[in-house]
Specification:
Elements: H1 12-23, H2 27-39, E1 42-44, H3 55-68, E2 72-79, E3 85-91, H4 94-103, H5 106-124, H6 132-141, H7 145-161, H8 165-179, H9 197-219, H10 224-240, H11 243-260, H12 263-280, H13 283-299, H14 303-316, H15 319-322, H16 336-351, H17 354-370, H18 374-390, H19 394-411, H20 414-429, H21 435-452, H22 458-471, H23 475-492, H24 498-516, H25 520-540, H26 544-560, H27 564-575
Antiparallel strand pairs: 1-3, 2-3
């Protein structure tokens, strides 16, 4: 943490006490304490050389003070990578160090910081990056801004490798502040020696990418700060005409537009990635393009195209080259293989292959657990929780919700914590005695989605909340949520859940009429139209699982109307298509009692 000029902050009695103690010291001891106060709360006596003091003399002075119990205490030995070995000392209290630091005249303080940084830099040599944060502070206070920016950037990289996203953001912001990029609104400009324009552009671009990655982990893909950061990075890429640096920028922007919408903006970024991949023949960029195109296609409801892109991405993926811990392009973000595999699982489920979908989800979880990358693992767990909840597999969902909470709490993934509460609420709402409590938790995440305008997620989460409201006897609220979701889908172009939304609209219309009374024939006609629209939408998308849900709802309505033969024929034609997953909780309710399973002519509709 940077040292502040805190003379006014220290209690007057402490300042007076320190002043009296210092007054009784020799001039040599006072000089050593001045160097020590600049060096830090703990320091090597060898740092005395920064002020022209012979290190052996400096150690003798520190040792004498420590033996008398004056301001310092011994803290063992310190060995620097260049072989320098000297006693290590620490201030008895941090306030002593702050008071002594405040006594050093500002001009001398600047010089001491600069020389201390230079001495430590020489001592650590090629390993200087290990103490990048410390060196950044010394060079910043020593007014060598070029080296301050350099080491702040390296400190951000160190924090990123440790998955310390808040520290990454802090270092990146401070470096950008020094470059004059982060504080434009205030009109401030740092003084001192800075790189020439091309190098400055490259440095700012690298820092913007680090900041964007950290903000994404902390605040979610669709936070406005994320867009601002990557938009600025894209401007810098165009100035620098730098394809390698353009790759992570396009990744960040692609995720932002995917989550925030509209889908056409996300598709534009995905196509740009594809063009870059074709030009460079870079396997990592090709993988990123497959993932981006697969995700956009999935959320737009183009399931067959989505599966083709995602499976191609899975085939390209190599964890030894493309995991965020190893790849510069994917560093800090979500593992691309995991993203492809999770979305392939959902796509297979929508297309009507529940068993293969479950296998893909298990592969995704196994991959995430093998990577030592908490952000990827938390993403996989929350994805798996929603997947199993939607399939009615509550025990598996509960396991993944617990893992999401644990990882998100430990690493500060606020968005995953919020979505974890939704899934926890869903589980509670399945128990009638805890339904109200569960719905309150579900509403909390939906409100977050509204706030951050997470348009790719809203159709599904609004639908799940609407269905839960219906079970709780609140069809009017459920109907309002469905209408909101349909509006979001129309605006964003994300039609992946539209068939299910039309089905829910029909179901909720009937529930509302049952509750209010007075218009059953009208309600039935409206509901039937909704169910037919759901079936037609699902057929256009080849979404057999969603078609089966809609056909089940329509067949129940027709059975209630005395049209049992039509109901069995309709449901049998869809249910009979399925050849796997027939025992899953989500498919069992759709099983027609009088239908012989097999491969009817309808199989060719795929």
């Amino acid at each position: 943490m940077p040292v502040k000029d805190v003379a006014a902050d220290a209690p007057e009695t402490l300042a007076q006490m320190v002043e009296r103690q210092v007054a009784r010291l020799t001039m040599d001891e006072q000089a050593m304490l001045a160097v020590a106060s600049v060096a830090g709360v703990e320091f090597s006596a060898a740092i005395a050389a920064a002020d022209g003091i012979d290190p052996r003399d400096g150690e003798r002075r520190c040792d004498a003070l420590a033996r008398r119990g004056q301001l310092l205490r011994a803290a063992g030995l310190a060995e620097w990578p260049d072989g320098t070995v000297a006693g290590r000392y620490a201030f008895i209290h941090a306030l002593y160090r702050r008071a002594l630091y405040a006594r050093v005249p500002i001009t001398r303080r600047i010089g001491l910081h600069l020389r201390t940084g230079a001495r430590l830099e020489r001592a650590y040599g090629p390993r200087a990056g290990e103490i990048a944060g410390e060196l950044a502070i010394h060079f910043e206070h020593g007014r060598d801004l070029e080296r301050a920016v350099q080491y702040r950037g390296r400190a951000a990289e160190n924090a990123m490798r440790q998955h310390a996203y808040r520290e990454t953001a802090d270092h990146a912001r401070r470096a950008l502040d020094l470059l004059g990029s982060w504080s434009r609104s205030s009109g401030s400009r740092p003084s001192g020696r800075l790189p020439e324009a091309p190098e400055r552009v490259h440095q700012e671009l690298t820092l913007m990418v680090a900041l964007g990655t950290a903000l994404t982990a902390m605040k979610g893909y669709s936070a406005p700060e994320v867009e601002q950061t990557y938009a600025r990075a894209l401007e810098l890429c165009e100035q620098a005409d730098d394809t390698p640096r353009l790759f992570p920028v396009l990744l960040g922007l692609g995720w932002f537009y995917l989550v925030r919408g509209p889908g056409r903006a996300a598709r534009d970024v995905a196509r740009r990635l594809s063009v870059v991949a074709d030009v460079t023949r870079d396997a990592a960029i090709g993988l990123a393009a497959d993932n981006a195109l697969g995700l956009v296609s999935f959320y737009e409801g183009e399931y067959a195209a989505a599966l083709a892109h995602l499976e191609q991405g899975i085939a390209r993926y190599d964890p030894t080259q493309h995991s965020p811990n190893l790849s510069l392009g994917f560093r800090g973000g979500l593992d691309p293989g995991l993203s492809c595999t999770c979305h392939a699982a959902w796509t297979l489920w929508a297309l009507g292959y529940p068993d293969r979908a479950a296998e893909r989800m298990q592969e995704a979880l196994a991959l995430a657990r093998s990577l030592d990358h908490p952000f990827t693992l938390a993403h996989a767990c929350r994805f798996a929780a929603a997947f199993h909840l939607s399939r009615g597999e509550f025990d598996l969902a509960r396991e993944h919700v617990g893992a999401t909470f644990a990882l998100s709490t430990e690493h500060g993934f606020r968005q995953f914590l919020a979505v974890g509460k939704f899934h926890s609420g869903w589980l509670r709402a399945e128990r009638e005695e805890r339904r109200e409590e569960g719905i309150a938790l579900m509403r909390g995440w939906v409100e977050v989605c509204r706030t951050i305008r997470s348009e790719c997620l809203m159709p599904t989460y609004l639908a799940w909340l609407a269905e839960t409201c219906a079970r709780a006897g609140e069809p009017a609220e459920g109907l309002a949520l469905v209408n909101e979701a349909l509006a979001v889908a129309a605006q964003s172009g994300y039609q992946h859940w539209t068939a299910e939304l039309h089905r829910l609209k029909g179901m909720l219309t009937l529930r509302l009429e049952d509750r209010n009374g007075g218009g059953r024939p009208v309600a039935e006609r409206t509901a039937e139209a909704c169910f037919l629209e759901a079936i037609e939408t699902a057929r256009r998308q080849h979404a057999m699982s969603l078609e089966l849900r809609a056909a089940t709802s329509l067949s129940r309505l027709r059975a209630q109307q005395g049209r049992s033969k039509e109901a069995r024929a309709l449901l049998g034609s869809v249910y009979g298509w399925f050849t796997e997953g027939l025992g899953t909780p989500a498919l069992v309710p759709a099983r027609p009692r009088s239908v012989t399973l097999g491969r009817p002519a309808g199989k060719g509709r795929r």
